Amino acid sequence: MTQVARRTSSPIRIFRKGVTKAVDDNPLSVSACKAIGATTRSVEMISESISDKWKRSVDAILSPTLPSLPTSKTEDEDSTSTNSEIAGDYDDDEYDLGHEPKPLVAEEPSAPPMKRFSRAHSDVESSIIGGEPAEQIDPDEGSHETAVEEASPTRKVFSFSLPFGTNGPHKPGRLSSIRSVLSPTRTIFEPDDKELQRIEIRQKLARQESISTVEEAILFEDVTKLQDNKIDALFKSLKPTVKLPPNHELPDYMRIFQELEGDIIILGGYRGSILRDSLTKRRAWIPVLKAGLNIKKIDLLLGPKDEDELHTEEKIYADGILSHIGPVDICKKLMATLEANPKVRVHNFGYDWRLSLDIPAEKLHALLKDIKKRTGKPALLIAHSMGGLVSHSAMQKDPSLVRGIVYVGTPAPCSNIMGPLRFADHILLCKDLLTSEVNFMMRSSFVFIPRNGELFKDKNTGELYNIDFFDPKNWIEYNLSPIVSSIRLAQEAGKPVPPHVKQQSRFAISFDEAYEYLCRTLKRTSEFLDSLEYDESREYPPMAVVYGNAVPSVRYSLVDGIEEIKMGNYYHFFYGPGDGVTNQKWVFPENRGYPLVGKFNSTLGHVALLTDLDCIGKAMLAIVRAEQK
Length: 629
Description:
Elements: H1 11-25, H2 30-49, H3 52-62, H4 92-96, H5 123-129, E1 134-136, E2 165-166, H6 176-182, H7 193-206, H8 213-220, E3 223-226, H9 230-237, H10 252-259, E4 262-267, E5 273-277, E6 283-285, H11 289-292, H12 306-310, E7 316-321, E8 324-325, E9 328-329, H13 332-339, E10 344-349, H14 358-375, E11 379-384, H15 387-397, E12 402-408, H16 418-422, E13 425-427, E14 430-434, H17 436-441, E15 454-458, E16 464-466, H18 472-477, H19 486-492, H20 511-530, E17 543-548, E18 551-559, H21 562-567, E19 573-578, E20 598-602, H22 613-628
Parallel strand pairs: 4-10, 4-11, 11-12, 12-17, 15-18, 17-20
Antiparallel strand pairs: 1-3, 2-13, 5-6, 5-7, 8-9, 13-14, 15-16, 18-19
Helix pairs in contact: 1-2, 5-9, 7-8, 10-22, 14-15
């Protein structure tokens, strides 16, 4: 075969090289190789002609949490959506046909080989929710901050993002994500003194030791952006892995999946349950194609009154945990592995994550009572992210109903929420599904607000601006949401506003209605958070934590003066170790003083934590051993 002169590697050339090797091994595939070669050339040509809009939409599916580059146009203006005639739509229910995961079980020596699902693919989910490994670059001299690089005033980089969202569109180079992942070249350097310091700090984190703010700055000072590792994870997910050994050869934390008995309830977090249209039964969350192309309109906006929460199921209802998105696993393999154990009954608890958390907590409490009544035994809870707060609230009502709780990446607080409250979230192909108004009207959004007021820090002086986020007047003064901002008041009064201030300007409710709603919701949220506090006079079930400490996670937003807060210039960050969403200093319930029977750190990102079966197994084993004591 004719050898092509060696050139700089590109994803297409690397792909061709792999095909060439396959042809050498199998001469019968020569014609297929030629066809694939022609296809790859066509792909390169077509990719150069794709419009920016389509490119952003495609990239949003694979990279939904990369920092955004808002344009000068108001992104969520005129974006209030209503239900309209709904045509057929793709959702994961259709994908599931023929794609059921195999449970992760041990094999008998005489059984035919069974491939274990690769755990490497779980990296992709971390980026869907907002956590991605950091890309290390050469440090700039004099840099002593862990921060995202500053953008020009007209192109703000904003990465206060939450599950499945990105705050506005971005315009990466064509095929840049594929090229950056597939390029075999890597920068090789000898570790200097600062790199040796980082190694020592990482070792401390691996030992679950706390690190100082200075050490956080050293660890992440070269982080200027979050690396896109999703395509790499997708490629890894296609690679077969070795089969599991027989059950008696497995470590005890993996045998627990086969030896455990009883009822287990699994629940997701913020945006972590499927929502369906009550009339059509089609998915309202997460929608895919037709909603993104505006062929189908979905309205997730809640009304401002308390009774509006009581009637949500007339339009939208919850239908189980969001276990996967297409081939991307979130907890589907975990559920399949537990369900393979005939001694375990798995309960898939979905809830409307938009509502005040005392509502799903009450429903979970009712389920716990029913299980205890039927079986005479309490249930084990495995709760991801905000689901840990729901589980904890249900447990507080009657701890005897709960066998134990595994908190997986549960944050309290989570400063990332300030992004969706101030700006719109772009979800996959949909830019008007989660507007700033929709996010603001979700009662659950407010449980993540820092109660201590510590979020914004002056990047020049180091002064920490302490803002009482539970004082509704501060929301107006600092323009924390366009629905109740001084900017909206000025606009409605016909007064001039700064020309560079861009925010949603049309709303479904009046300013007075929004402010009254905010006052009531902040009070209700504060009462809910108070109900989660530790009471040393009570006897609690065993609690274990699975958390991440290997991904840069926002701790502060660095601003150039108080006016930048009012203008919404939250695009310079101070990072600490975490899972990309939950900073390890904010892991619940340890930060509330609750004793733990086990604490297990994962290297995966936030939404991928439930795919770390090693850590989940260790946490369940710790609870079982605590029971035995």
